[in-house]
């Protein structure tokens, strides 16, 4: 009996801590540096180092490749935790997990990508994305540049208007036309390790209102490598089946976390005011606080519903590529980005001058500037236009599920 207890105790002692507890430590570090990262527009190096140290960059990689196999809900919760500490840090983590999802859902078909998944987990590699390009605006489903293949190798030159944290990433996943004679929408995605044959020449500097720590500079990208680094599946399938949904879900989780922290500051402000009121009445801002809570609950419900729909559709290519699914995740992005801004604006009204000023316990200026990026991070107008086109080809699903 004692032997059995000792064995059980040893197993518990050797088990890794829960990801949420490890993220709690990371978030504490991120919060200490968040204002400085924002003020100086610098990369949150301390946060990323902590994420690597805590083994949180490879959590979504399947266990058979050395990861922890976390699902969408678990990853989204980690992003929400981090976003309540630092919006820029959370957005970097979210974008990394978006690229990881492409490996998880589309990388098992290739020996090279399976091996790289093992590297992501073992070495805690940070993944970035080069999908935007000069001349195409924000249309990720078109490319001007093309990969050229010869003798089992590829070469690529791309004018990337934005590569978030590209200077600090361990690998960049870039999109391009399949070949020089391919149509602009006939795209592939290629993994470009930054320790390989890659040159990044900065062409623009990320000096913005918010999300300053993402360091999303523009680059002239030149890369060569093995043709095996190109994902076997067309980018159109990768985008529809993993990137679209994971982008909108993990971005929404980021905005939800930022809004939640602003709300928490506003709630603390109202509680402090309530303690000072002799008559015990509702302080000014109390009704706005309730309004903010309702908006947060709507965001939470919409995000949870989209995650459930995404998880239910995994493994079913028809479901993932369906018009209804695309319309639903598009709606999540538009609604979450608008509601996050509204919640932070309410927090600013509740906290007044103490929320407007920097350096107070109730400051929400950084939060407001960070979420201001949400409606324009792939323009809501572009997404609504795409959804309108989809609605011309289908009926709205009125079922509430099972």
Low-pLDDT parts are 7-13
Counted up, domains total 3
Q: End-to-end distance, in Å?
A: 46 Å
Describe the sheet with the most strands.
Answer: 4 strands, antiparallel
Q: Using the coordinates shown, work out and report the CATH topology of the largest domain.
A: Butyryl-CoA Dehydrogenase, subunit A, domain 3
Q: Judging by the overall fold, what is the CATH architecture of the largest domain?
A: Up-down Bundle
- The mean pLDDT is 94
Strand and helix layout:
Blueprint: H1 2-14, H2 19-40, H3 45-53, H4 72-83, H5 87-106, H6 111-123, E1 127-130, E2 148-150, E3 153-160, E4 171-177, E5 187-193, E6 198-204, E7 218-226, H7 235-276, H8 286-313, H9 317-320, H10 323-351, H11 353-356, H12 365-371, H13 380-391
Parallel strand pairs: 1-4
Antiparallel strand pairs: 2-3, 3-7, 4-5, 6-7
Helix pairs in contact: 2-3, 2-4, 4-5, 4-7, 5-7, 7-8, 7-10, 8-10, 10-12, 10-13
What is the compact description of this entry?
By secondary structure, the chain is α+β, with helices and mostly antiparallel strands.
Explain this structure to me?
- By secondary structure, this protein is an alpha+beta fold.
- The protein folds into three domains: 7-125, Acyl-CoA dehydrogenase/oxidase, N-terminal domain (Butyryl-Coa Dehydrogenase, subunit A, domain 1), CATH 1.10.540; 128-229, Butyryl-CoA Dehydrogenase, subunit A, domain 2 (Beta Barrel); 235-391, Up-down Bundle (Butyryl-CoA Dehydrogenase, subunit A, domain 3), CATH 1.20.140.
- Helix content is 53%, strand content 11%.
- It has helices at 2-14, 19-40, 45-53, 72-83, 87-106, 111-123, 235-276, 286-313, 317-320, 323-351, 353-356, 365-371, 380-391; strands at 127-130, 148-150, 153-160, 171-177, 187-193, 198-204, 218-226.
- Strands 2-3-7-6 form a four-stranded antiparallel beta sheet, with no helix packed on it. Strands 1-4-5 form a three-stranded mixed beta sheet, with helices on one face.
- Strand 2 (148-150) and strand 3 (153-160) form a beta hairpin.
- Helix 2 runs antiparallel to helix 3 and helix 4 (72-83) packs across helix 7 (235-276).
- The protein starts with a helix and ends in an 11-residue tail after the last helix.
- Residues 7-13 have low confidence and may be disordered.
């Amino acid at each position: 009996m004692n032997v059995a207890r000792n064995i059980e105790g040893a197993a518990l002692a050797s088990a890794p801590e829960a990801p949420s507890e490890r993220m709690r430590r990371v978030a504490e570090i991120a919060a200490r540096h968040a204002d400085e990262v924002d003020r100086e527009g610098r990369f949150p190096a301390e946060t990323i180092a902590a994420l690597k140290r805590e083994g949180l960059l490879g959590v979504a990689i399947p266990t058979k490749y050395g990861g922890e196999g976390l699902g969408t809900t678990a990853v989204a919760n980690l992003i929400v935790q981090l976003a309540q500490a630092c919006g820029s840090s959370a957005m970097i983590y979210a974008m990394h997990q978006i690229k990881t999802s492409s490996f998880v859902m589309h990388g098992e078909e290739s020996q090279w990508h399976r091996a790289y998944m093992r590297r992501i987990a073992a070495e805690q590699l940070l993944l970035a994305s080069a999908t935007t390009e000069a001349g195409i605006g924000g249309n990720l489903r078109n490319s001007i540049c093309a990969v050229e293949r010869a003798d089992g190798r590829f070469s690529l030159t791309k004018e990337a208007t934005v590569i978030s944290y590209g200077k600090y990433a361990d690998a960049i996943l870039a999109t391009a036309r399949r070949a020089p004679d391919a149509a602009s929408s006939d795209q592939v995605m290629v993994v470009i390790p930054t320790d390989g044959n890659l040159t990044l020449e900065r062409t623009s500097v990320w000096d913005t209102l918010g999300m300053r720590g993402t360091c999303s500079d523009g680059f002239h990208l030149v890369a060569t490598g093995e043709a095996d680094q190109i994902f076997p599946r067309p980018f159109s399938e990768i985008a529809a089946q993993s990137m679209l949904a994971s982008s909108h879900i993990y971005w929404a989780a980021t905005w939800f976390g930022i809004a939640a922290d602003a709300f928490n500051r506003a709630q603390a402000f109202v509680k402090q005011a309530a303690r000072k009121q002799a008559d015990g009445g509702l302080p000014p801002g109390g009704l706005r606080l309730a309004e903010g809570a309702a908006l947060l609950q709507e965001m939470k419900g919409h995000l949870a519903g989209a995650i459930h729909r995404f998880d239910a559709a995994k493994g079913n290519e028809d479901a993932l590529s369906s018009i209804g699914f695309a319309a639903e995740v598009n709606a999540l992005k538009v609604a979450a980005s608008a509601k996050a801004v509204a919640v932070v604006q309410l927090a600013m009204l509740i906290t007044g001058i103490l929320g407007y000023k920097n350096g107070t316990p109730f400051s929400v200026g950084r939060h407001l500037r960070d979420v201001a990026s949400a409606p324009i991070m792939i323009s809501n107008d572009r997404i609504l236009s795409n959804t309108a086109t989809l609605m011309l080809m289908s009926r709205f699903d009125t079922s509430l599920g099972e």
